[in-house]
Specification:
Length: 169
Amino acid sequence: MREEPTDEVNAAIAEIARRYPQPRSAALMVLHFLQERFGCLTPPLIEQAAEQLGLQPVNLYELVTFYPMFRMRPAGRWHLRLCRTLSCALAGSAELHRYLCEKLGLDPSERGPQTTPDGRVTVEFVDCLARCHQAPAALCNEEEWDRVDKGKLDEFLRRLESERGDELG
Ligand code: FES
């Protein structure tokens, strides 16, 4: 995957920007597009997008660093976000986060994103996912997980093992 924007990517950014009355209004959609296309938002991508939208890079950096859905480093193939905010905390999300980190050999005290050495899984302890009524809630890539428990995490871990087995043949 290329890390620099190509003409094709620049054309796609221009096309997104055309749908909005102000280029600045297209910023979030452009960032989502770039993250999906490149896996993460690197400084060259952010700066190129800012230039194309007629913005200062800081206008995009402030969005990237504010919204937890954006990332500046690549995530694993599976990106599991567990909610740590009140409803989910009361429903045991800290214990689930600790359990998962320990099973994957990650640091349970780390709240930010951390990825297993094989690049397969990124675990992140995030703020409210807006699914408080389904606490503890999680997001696995784009899939919403409701009322997560250790059984659900074990199921996920078994799936990882099975994937590993398939890859080894
Ligand atoms: S508190 Fe966890 S989804 Fe809102």
